[in-house]
Amino acid sequence: MLLEVAIGTILMTDLVAAQPATLTLGQAVQQSVEKYPAVRGSLEQVSAAASGINLARTAYLPRADFLGQVNRATHNNVFGLLLPQAVIPSISGPAQGTNSLNNVWGSAVGTLVSWEPVDFGLRKANVETAKAARDRAAAEVNVTKLQVATAAADAFLTIAAAQQTVVAARAGVERARILNDVIGTLAKNELRPGADASRSRAEFAFAQTQQIQAEQAVAVACAALAQLLVTKPESIVIEPGPLLQAPAAPQVPDADAAQHPLAIAREAVVTEVKAREKALDHLYYPRLYLQGTAYARGTGIQPDGRTGGVASGLGPNIQNWALGATITFPAFDWFSIRARKEIEVHNERSAAANYDQALQDLTGGIEKAKAVLEGARRVAQNTPIQLEAARTTEQQATARYRAGLGNITEVAEAQRLLTQAEIDDSLARLGVWRALLGVAAAEGDLTPFLASAGK
To answer: Mean pLDDT in the chain?
Structure first.
């Protein structure tokens, strides 16, 4: 007996564990924001932009270069000028008037440390540009999160609507089945014509088709939500909660379109372009470098032309050090800098126009969403009247038919009307919630909507 109880307990535990957990609207939205790859990609872009700030700050550090060299070369040298280039190597030492192929070893090691103590604000401007890029990337993350959260909430509501349609369709199938059984019996007893039986079978098949289509809509909606949650459709089991009831009618406050994540992201683009312009303003200045160097050289030939042994020159044995300052000024860079500034000016104007367009579109979207909400509320107030009238019509048509006072067409039309009224009534309540979601998405903040839907 105890063994049977233990086995039963284990089986029940496994059965409960195998059942997928129900999903609320808030959980669906949260999971989509956490798991959807587009959000993760946007977050990585923010991290990359933040690393760009650290990269810009490295310009404040000194630069240290190290060199080591060994060569075997001839030692012929001449007087005269050689223009700066990167092909012909230079030779130090006096010109001895030789032109032989005799060669010796040469070696060198050294280091050069350079630091720019004054930059006339260039490095700071570059850091600010990197910060503006990070802020723009962070703003775009919020846009992506809003889009994904809105899509998840909409998919959740679509599942709830499809499930309510299935409930109404099943009720319609049951009514059509009962009517088909009754008329089939009457037709067999020759109390009703065979045409009535054929019509009732057709209506029964139509109701079943309607149910199949509704179940198909549920499966498609589950697949859409599963895509956003990065999971399998069969694991989606929603808990509608208060979504099946008509929500209260709170006053929708006026929203500032400038606070919408999309508007903030567009404004961040303008700020980034301005930061690049400011950095260009600091380019046309002299560059001052403090420099220090230490090096040693070795050679296999003496100033008088005498050469050493086989390994002479392999080891650096003559050392030097130096401290100094260098000032550079790229005078003719003014033309390229001016052209780059013109590019950024046009980029700024374009970004500002995009920002203005975003504000205009968002303001219009908010007003449209409010109009949809008002219409959805009025529809939700009217559908109960429609449903009650459809029920009464169906009952009266069925009673008249059974009493021999009506025909099958009246009953069929009344049942179709009732099924549609049941669907419309359930969808009208969800339509108000969907309209509230539309208002929240248009305003750029789903928090109030999720709070209402979670009560």
So the answer is: 87
User: How far apart (Å, rounded) are the C-alpha atoms in residues 381 and 133?
Assistant: 49
Identify the bridge partners of residue 68 per DSSP, sorted by sequence position: 109
The number of residues making up the chain comes to 455
CA distances to 7, 8, 304, 392 from 11, in Å:
6, 5, 101, 48
CATH class as words, domain 21-73+103-304+316-453? mainly alpha
Query: Phi and psi dihedrals of 152, rounded to 5?
Result: -65, -45
Task: Give the DSSP letter of residue 23.
Answer: B
Domain locations in the chain as residue ranges = 21-73+103-304+316-453
pTM of the predicted model over 0.85: no
pLDDT tens for 255-313 read 889 999 999 999 999 999 999 999 999 999 999 999 999 999 999 888 888 888 888 88
Cβ neighbours of residue 120 closer than 8 Å, sequence gap 6 or more: 282, 285
Q: CA-to-CA distance for 43 and 234, rounded, in angstroms? A: 29
DSSP 243: G
Show the tokens assigned to 238. Answer: 């929603």
* DSSP designation for 71: E
Dist. CA 346–CA 353, nearest whole Å: 11
Query: What is the CB neighbour count within 10 angstroms for residue 116?
Result: 17
Return the residue matching tokens 């109030």: 448
d(CA 209, CA 200): 14
Q: Tell me what pLDDT residue 18 has.
A: 45
Mean pLDDT of all residues in 152-180: 88
Query: Please, what sign has the CA dihedral across residues 389, 391, 393, 399?
Result: negative
Residue type, 412: A
CA separation (Å) from 391 to 164, 183, 418?
A: 18, 20, 6
> What is the secondary structure of 95-123 as a DSSP string?
--------EEEEEEEEEEEEE-S--TTHH
- Among 277, 291, 252, 332, residue whose Cα is nearest residue 114: 291
Q: Report how far apart, in Å, the C-alpha atoms of 295 and of each of 93, 105, 115, 336 are.
A: 17, 17, 18, 37
In contact, 56 and 126? CB cutoff 8 Å: yes
What are the tens digits of pLDDT across the range 335-364? Answer: 999 999 999 999 999 999 999 999 999 999
Distance between first and last Cα of the chain: 46
CA atoms within 13 A on the CB side of 337: 14
Judge whether residue 380 has pLDDT over 70.
yes
Q: Are 235 and 102 in contact (CB under 8 A)?
A: no
Give CA–CA dist 17/348, Å, rounded.
57
